[in-house]
Design goal:
Elements: E1 2-10, H1 14-22, E2 33-40, E3 52-57, E4 60-70, E5 74-83, E6 86-98, E7 101-112, H2 118-146
Antiparallel strand pairs: 1-7, 2-3, 3-4, 4-5, 5-6, 6-7
Helix pairs in contact: 1-2
Length: 154
C-alpha cells in the first residue's frame, strides 16, 4: 500500500473551502477530471455519511462512499470500486484555519490490484498520477474560490 498526500493553503474561509471540496461536481473544473456525480445522497447532507460519489478521471473510474463527514474540518471515504481495480484502505480531506486561509490535506492509501506488480506499479505510476490529480483539483478550488467574495467565518 502507498500513502499519497497533497497539501495546499487556499486563500478562503474554511467553510467555503470545505463546501467546495466536498461537492464532487466541482472536480470537473480540473482538466484531469472528466465527469463526477453524486450517485446517492448522504444521511445528514448531500455529501454526508453514506453518500456515494462517482468519478471519471483521466487515470480511471472510482466509486466512493463517504464514511465520515464533520463540517468544516474533515471528510473521509473509501473507494468501493475502481477501474483499474485497486485496494483502497482510506481516503480523507482535513481542513484547518491558518494564516492566509485554509490548509487542506488530502490523503489516500491504496494499491493497484495486480499480483506481484501491483506494489511497484503503484509506487512508480499510480502514486504520481494520484498526487497530480489531487493537486489539480486543489488548484481548481484555489482558482474558483479566489474569484468569489468570501463570507466571514464565525
Amino acid at each position: 500500500m502507498e500513502t499519497m498526500t497533497s497539501e495546499r493553503i487556499i486563500a478562503a474561509p474554511i467553510d467555503d473551502v470545505f463546501t467546495w471540496l466536498t461537492t464532487t461536481t466541482n472536480y470537473t473544473r480540473s482538466p484531469l477530471v472528466l465527469r463526477c456525480r453524486l450517485a446517492r445522497r448522504g444521511e445528514s447532507a448531500p455529501y454526508g455519511v453514506g453518500a456515494v460519489r462517482s468519478h471519471l478521471w483521466m487515470i480511471g473510474w472510482l466509486r466512493e462512499r463517504i464514511t465520515r463527514y464533520e463540517p468544516p474540518y474533515t471528510t473521509e471515504y473509501v473507494v468501493e470500486r475502481s477501474v483499474p481495480p485497486s485496494r483502497h484502505e482510506f481516503g480523507s480531506m482535513t481542513f484547518s484555519e491558518v494564516d492566509g486561509g485554509t490548509l487542506v490535506r488530502w490523503t489516500t492509501r491504496a494499491e493497484m490490484k495486480l499480483p506481484l506488480l501491483g506494489p511497484v506499479l503503484t509506487r512508480v505510476l499510480v502514486r504520481p498520477m494520484i498526487v497530480r490529480s489531487f493537486d489539480s483539483i486543489l488548484d481548481a478550488a484555489d482558482t474558483a474560490l479566489a474569484r468569489q467574495p468570501h463570507r466571514k467565518s464565525s
